[in-house]
Design a protein that fits this description.
heterodimer; A: 452 residues; alpha/beta; 2 domains; six-stranded mixed beta sheet; four-stranded mixed beta sheet; 19 helices; 47% helix; 14% strand; B: 283 residues; mainly alpha; MetI-like fold; 73% helix; 0% strand
């Protein structure tokens, strides 16, 4: 009898042990759900405020902030900044989870391409009023400000402020250009002629490296807008302009040089494209200003690299340049922050001529603060000078990208795959342009009719 | 059945069989595919920046100094070890208890629990990120390495519990019963008789737990909010910038991340094979 009772008791214990194990094993949801009642630990208040700042490109840019943050803390003894570097490939994932989980940072660097997704979660504070009443007012480059507003909504709300721009850039390997007595082309016709002239496939040398895989559509769009002289993604009726005969003409000409004046680039993502260009056997690469430092390092010095805006299109009047608004890096303040005054103080500091100049000098990008343009280093960096001249030219037409469209990311990813089909001749350039235009038109229709 | 290729007869066929080329050729090719990426990693890790040699000469430790001192791999390494060891202990203890219950007791809902455990394997970790984040936030565990130990342990337990129950089932229950007849309680019988026989199982499960936690990137990225609390996989991602990749640093970081795992497997591989096969056949 005693044995029987002991056995039953043991069975009960066993069942309890097993159930506990299962609960823990099955994802821990049950035990953890009960724990949600535990209040979030409140930090003690003190005279010194600590704000958390997330850098969207932790690693390469960490040393820059390690230089700037102590400067800020010295100027503002009551504010401490906790720096967290987020690896670039995982930034949006990290922001999304933190916002959904209710624990975002106080202030963060946000890539322009991710801004719409974060704004859509109502996570940021509008900065228009703070900017207007700040000494920064009027100092930030208007092109970048307009592009920032267009990145998240098509009204004029500034959910973040731009600290750097990366316009699309034509990079030329001047060692190869000089050998052929050529200069980096400023028109698309010269571009195609030079690509042919620089190609010597028997020696493994090509005029251009092309992006065939991931990211190709964004790059192609910049080129198509510039070549076709497009002034907007959409007509007044909301129809995309990307299936116009001029746009199709560009796609036809560009696709035709794949495998002829380029190596086999169908599978090229960013890394493969840059690796090809850095091999010193490629004449030109279309990317953006962000690759300046690595190009200079790989090609043996600044004198061997020239970076220009996308060339002038054959349909444009002389001197007129059409360019898609530069890619952006921005700073945003999060609604959940309890120290928004300190956050703004830090943002103002980061956007000041001193800090913004230092930041952009280190990475070789277009500064957000126009006062930086007077600094000596700007004049010494040829690609930045070239971009600034183009943006300051009244004849330049800057075309804002509709980053506010929630479907844009999906559309360009789909089009990347279809671009590979164009390069492998499975579909025609006309089909590619028609598909792209039709998807953009549908997305714009949904947006303007309130389906966000 | 002869291993000689079709049409090969006589002395030639015997030589072919003696040479065991039919084993060495495919194994050699497999080794090549496996080891080339490692060779690439070693070359880039030890080669100076700008060198294009296919071998690491002259050897430099600059990439290791960069990742250890500048990118903070020293801290990431320490965190990975703490989380890995914590997970190893947690997984072994809990899966021994739950595995024992599954192996030795018959209770209502047992079959359902086993199926439930198997089903949890179909749920990708990424789907549970936000609920887990909220739970850890309410527990005050965001930016605390304990959160990683809990998350890694919990995600590995379904599989390790089933494995452990298989191991325990392979130990004859009569051994425990004999100990209990001699006066041991069930717990003491388990501790004194079964536990020592489960050493290969603990090694096998512990290795899985440690390596799984060592390689987990997502939890460390999402649940940690300080440079001081990130682990090695997050550190590796630091070498990939928006517009540039530091291949030397990436490779050096890869070597640092791979060496402990290789060492762990080199030390425990004897137990590992034993552990993986011990529960495979049940008499």
């Amino acid at each position: 009898m005693r044995q029987h009772r002991a056995w039953r008791q043991t069975r009960r214990i066993g069942t309890a042990v097993a159930t506990t194990g299962m609960l823990l094993a099955g994802g821990g949801i049950a035990s953890a759900t009960a724990a949600t009642a535990v209040p979030h630990s409140a930090k003690p208040h003190s005279s010194s405020v600590t704000i958390t700042f997330w850098d969207d490109n932790g690693g390469p840019r960490t040393p820059i902030y390690m230089h700037l943050i102590p400067m800020f803390e010295k100027e503002n003894p009551g504010i401490k900044v906790k720096y967290v570097g987020i690896p670039d490939p995982s930034v949006l994932e990290k922001y999304d989870t933190a916002i959904a989980g209710g624990d975002p940072p106080d202030i963060g660097a946000i890539p322009g391409g991710d801004l719409a997704a974060i704004v859509a979660q109502s996570a940021l504070v509008p900065l228009n009023k703070l900017y207007q009443s700040s000494p920064l007012n009027g100092k930030l480059l208007p092109t970048l400000l307009t592009a920032t507003a267009a990145s998240s909504s098509n009204d004029k709300t500034l959910w973040a402020l731009p600290f750097s721009g990366v316009p699309s850039t034509l990079w030329c390997n001047m060692v190869l250009f000089r050998a052929k007595h050529l200069t980096c082309p400023t028109t698309w016709n010269a571009f195609f002629t030079d690509a042919k002239a620089l190609t010597n496939s028997s020696k493994g040398q090509y005029g251009l490296t092309m992006r065939g895989a991931g990211g190709s559509t964004n790059q192609l769009t910049d080129e198509m807008v510039s070549y076709a002289g497009l002034t907007s993604y959409f007509t007044k009726n909301g129809k995309s302009t990307f299936d116009s005969p001029r746009a199709v003409d560009f796609i036809k000409r560009f696709a035709a040089i794949e495998g002829v004046d380029t190596p086999n680039d169908v599978d090229n993502g960013y890394l493969q494209m840059v690796a090809e260009f850095d091999s010193k056997k490629i004449g030109m690469m279309l990317h953006n200003l962000g690759s300046y430092a690595s190009n200079v390092s790989a090609l043996g010095g600044a004198s061997n690299v020239v970076g220009l805006t996308e060339p002038q299109g054959p349909y444009n009047k002389p001197g007129v340049l059409n360019m898609v608004a530069p890619g952006l890096d921005t700073y945003g303040i999060f609604k959940a922050s309890k120290n928004q005054a300190a956050d703004w103080k830090f943002e103002e500091f980061l956007l000041s001529a001193q800090a913004n100049g230092y930041w952009n000098q280190q990475v070789g990008q277009l500064p957000g603060n126009s006062d930086v343009l007077k600094q000596a280093w700007v004049a010494k960096q040829q690609p930045i000078k070239s971009m600034l001249a183009a943006l300051a030219n009244p004849k330049t037409v800057v075309v804002p990208a509709p980053n506010y469209l929630p479907q844009l990311g999906t559309i360009v990813t789909n089009m990347d795959t279809l671009w590979q089909e164009v390069l492998t001749k499975q579909i025609t350039p006309q089909q590619w342009c028609s598909t792209y235009a039709s998807q953009l038109t549908s997305a714009e229709y949904l947006w303007t009719h309130g389906h966000r | 059945m002869s291993a000689a290729p079709l049409g090969m007869t006589g002395e030639l066929a015997r030589r072919w069989e003696r040479s065991r080329l039919y084993l060495w050729v495919p194994l050699g090719l497999f080794m090549l595919f496996t080891l080339v990426p490692f060779y690439w990693m070693i070359v880039f890790a030890f080669r100076p920046d700008g060198s294009t040699h296919p071998y690491p000469w002259p050897v430099t430790l600059a990439n290791f100094k960069l990742v250890w001192n500048v990118l903070g791999f020293g801290v990431f390494f320490k965190n990975s070890v703490l989380v890995g060891v914590g997970t190893l202990v947690g997984v072994n203890v809990i899966s021994a208890l739950s595995g024992y219950a599954l192996a030795r007791f018959s209770f209502r809902g047992r079959g359902f629990l086993v199926v439930g455990l198997l089903c949890t394997q179909f749920v990708p970790g990424v789907m549970l990120l936000i609920p887990l984040f909220i739970i850890f936030r309410h527990l005050g565990l965001i930016d605390n390495l304990v959160a990683l130990v809990i998350a890694d342990t919990v995600f590995q337990l379904p599989l390790t519990t089933l494995l452990m129950s298989g191991f325990i089932r392979s130990v004859p229950v009569e051994l425990e019963e004999a100990a209990m007849v001699d006066g041991c309680s069930r717990l003491k019988a388990f501790r004194a008789v079964t536990l020592p026989l489960l050493r290969p199982a603990f090694v096998a499960i512990g290795s899985f737990a440690f390596v799984g936690s060592w390689n987990n990137f997502l939890f460390a990225l999402i649940f940690m909010n300080s440079q001081d609390h990130f682990t090695l996989p997050v550190g590796l991602d630091y070498t990939i910038g928006e517009f540039s990749v530091n291949f030397g640093a990436l490779a050096a970081g890869g070597v640092l991340a791979a060496v402990p795992v290789v060492l762990v497997f080199a030390v425990v591989q004897r137990y590992l094979v034993q552990g993986l096969t011990v529960g495979a056949i049940k008499g």
